[in-house]
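Course assignment 3, question 2. Fill in each field.
Student: A.L.
Task: Predict the tertiary structure for the chain below.
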Amino acid sequence: MAGFWHRRRSSIIRVRASPFLTTNEPTAQPTTPKPSNPKLLKRSQSSDQLAAMGLFGTSTTKSTEPETKIAPNRSQRAKCWEARDAFFECLDRNSIIDSVKEDKKAKEVCGGENVKFEKECVASWVEYFKKRRVMEYNRDQMMKGLQNEGAQQVAIPDPVGQAQVSPK
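Answer field:
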C-alpha cells in the first residue's frame, strides 16, 4: 500500500495515499529525531506511548467481526418477541417487576425463559425491553393513583399541522 509520511508536531504519522499518487519506491520507516532538551524528550516519549495505546494513533489490527451489523429480519424479530413474552409471563407469575434489580431471583425462577430471551434477541433489545417493562409498570401505577384521586382525563387536540375545527 502506497503512502507518505507527514510530520506533525513531535510525531510522524503515516497518511494513506490516493491510488492516483502511486510510486514504485518502497516506503521507508520514519525515524523520530531525539530532542536535545529533556523536557521535549519526555513530551515526545509520552506522545509515542499514547499513540502505542491507540489513543491518538491509528490501529493497524483489524477486527475479525464485520463492521456492519445486519438488522434482524421479520422471523427473527417474531422469535425475539415470543421469547420476550414468555419471559415476561414467567416474571408476572412470580411477581417480579424489575428483572434487572432482581436478577438473581429472576434467573432462579425463570432461568430457561431468560436464556432463550437473551439468545433470540439482540443484547440492546433485551436491555431496552427490561427497562421498558419497569417504565410501563410505573406509568400504569401512576395512572391508577391519579384515577383513585379523582383525576379526569383531558382530551388532547389534533396533532400540529392538521386542520383543527373550532367549536361553534
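Instructor remarks: The beta strands are 3-8, 11-16. The radius of gyration is 30 Å.
Grade: pending
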